Amino acid sequence: MGFNSVDDWVNEVTNEGKAQRLDWFKGTTGLGVTVAGRWYDLTSFPGYPADWIHGNYITNWAFGAGTTGWVLGSANWAYTPATALVTRTANADLSTLSQNTQCENGVTYRVTYTMTRSAGTLTPSLGGTALTARSVGGTFIQDVVCGATANAPLVFTPDATFAGTVDSVIIQRRRTFTPYSSDSTWNVGKDINAYTGGSVAPDTKHISAAGVWGNAAVLTPSVLMVVDMLGSYPNVATDSAASQALTNGTDFVANGTFTGSAASWTLGAAWAYGANTVAKNADGTNTLAQTTAIAPRAGLTYLVTYTISGWTVGDITVGFGGGTATTRTLTGNGTFTDVVTATADTGDLIFTPTNAARFTIDSVSATYGIPRYGDGAGVQAMYVLQNLNGANAANFVMSYTNPAGTSGRSLAATVANTASAIIGHLPHSGVAAGNTGPFLPLGGGDTGVQSIQSCQFSAAQATADGAVNLVLYRPLLTIPMTTGFTAAERDLMHQLPSMPQIKDGACLGFFLFAGAVVAAGNNVQGYLETSWG
After folding, report:
1. Span 389-398, average pLDDT
2. Is there a single domain that holds both residue 156 and residue 75?
3. How many separate domains does the chain show?
4. How far, in Å, CA of 322 to CA of 345, rounded?
């Protein structure tokens, strides 16, 4: 809805109480010294909201928010605030440390965790599938197929003699798009921002004022950018020079190619199966439908792709999870992708034709799309360091789909990757030739990114298991910080562009452009004032 006038805004805020202040801070403690001329994603920096790793299915991964999200099976597991560690004392009760996840049965995930040990053995499992038992301390990385245990719990099971700590727990679906939403039963991404206030529909929420400052003069001059994090392709390897295929996740559709039959589908009157396809061959608006084995999640967006052949007349509308895409006006054969935002955690995939339509449908799939800007207009891409990046120089290329649905698009310029040891650094940003930031330069005329199909570094980095997370985001506002210890502020009611919208489900993040060397231990602080109507 928004506001019709300043008077309308004043009424909504003062009389209806439709306003909220969001305070935040991010520190550089433990992350080393930032470098002038580079961009940093503060998502993984400690503070409030708590630090988080992109694409992580684990909430409160480093216990920066206490034991939130975790179940400590007995008093023999204890949390120490001073160290932000969970410690196990040896005991014969074999109690576990666990957290439910939204990992999918049969899907492979990369599990990373750090443990110390003075005695005994600790064995993790995901969805009931055991990982390697560990009887030494260290950081461990292992790929595992999630088992079928309900709620796909990650469980750390000690033997009777195990004594030690657990920290830095990460579960990622490698190189597979993982959407973020703070306003649905989907939990991935909520740690980025836990304070947007939830859905205000049918109202719309806007930033009316914002401020930022640092606790040290060396934090200026700098620039802060507030963004809506939409999702990521996690754990892209930097220790490989091979092309890396990226996907948009599980295909929710069973038998989308109708191979040998229309099993898993319900064909309404006027639909008929034949030769590995189904056809709309009579009048009527009855549907072609399937109840997917994995339910969609309310608030998330899906890309439903299908191929039409034998078209002579008519249009079609796609629905999924209670949501409905814009009716597809057909003028001929082709492969089409429709964007659908689910409104429920259960619901059928439904194709509804117009009455006299005549066509054949085949090759149906449904995968995750970007939430909140589903066609990708205005969406930017960047990649951020997850762990050490090595010392080798390399260029970066990627292939993506633009908002018009054109795939195979390439970056407009050669992007140079920079060696870095600071988690959260955007390695494509800096002052060297070929550096760019905070976004990757899109091909000429493209206004955003709908999805990414592949990426490649021209040389393998020196550090084994080095990785970056390729992130899609939408910029909301930018604030220059010119003077140390003094707040830089923006009045978004009277300055243009006016009152950027925070969409329902937004996961807000902060990018920092360092104009000077920022020492470890400094922090940047700020606020957002929002209102809705």
Report:
1. 81
2. yes
3. 3
4. 8
Compute how many other C-beta atoms are within 10 angstroms of the C-beta atom of residue 83: 11
Give phi and psi for 219, each to the nearest 5: -80, -5
Average pLDDT (254-274) is 96
What per-residue confidence (pLDDT) applies to 396?
A: 95
- Tens of pLDDT, residue by residue over 174-207, are 999 999 998 777 878 877 765 677 788 899 999 9
Q: What distance in Å separates the CA atoms of residue 164 and residue 117, rounded to the nearest whole number?
A: 4
- Name the token pair of 335: 């492969």
**In the beta sheet, which residues pair with residue 25?**
48, 525
Same domain, 347 and 408: no
- Cβ count near 260 (within 10 Å): 9
What is the dihedral sign for C-alpha 252, 253, 257, 260? positive
Instruction: Say if residue 276 is in the same domain as residue 348.
Output: yes
Q: By three-state DSSP, how is residue 405 classified?
A: coil
Are 330 and 475 within one domain? no
- Domain co-membership, 161 together with 86: yes
Residue at a domain's end among 368, 384, 408: 368
Q: Could you tell me which of 488, 510, 482, 528 has the C-alpha nearest to residue 225? A: 510
516 and 398 in a common domain: yes
Distance CA 21, CA 169 (A): 31
Looking at the fold, whether 348 and 289 belong to one and the same domain comes out as: yes
Which residues constitute the domain of residue 111?
71-172
* Percentage of the residues of the chain whose pLDDT score is greater than 90: 72
d(CA 98, CA 238): 31
Is the CA virtual torsion 435, 43, 474, 317 positive or negative?
positive
CB atoms within 10 A of CB 439: 20
Q: What one-character-per-residue DSSP string does 99-149 give?
A: E-----TT-EEEEEEEEEEEES-EEEEETTEE---B-S-EEEEEEEE---S
Strand 301-313 to 358-368 pairing: antiparallel
Return the pLDDT at 29: 58
* pLDDT tens-place string over residues 502-533: 998 899 999 999 887 777 778 889 999 999 99
Residue 330, token pair as written in the block: 């057909």
- How far CA 75 is from CA of 82, 83, 97, 480, in Å, comes to 18, 18, 11, 48
Alpha-carbon gap, residue 165 to 80, rounded angstroms: 10
Cα 515 from chain centroid (whole Å) = 28
Neighbour-count burial for 154-187, b at 16+ CB within 10 Å, e otherwise: bbbbbeeebbbbbbbbbbbbbbbbbbbbbbbebb
- Residue 456 and residue 346 share a domain: no
Cis omega (within 30 of 0) for bond into 438 = yes
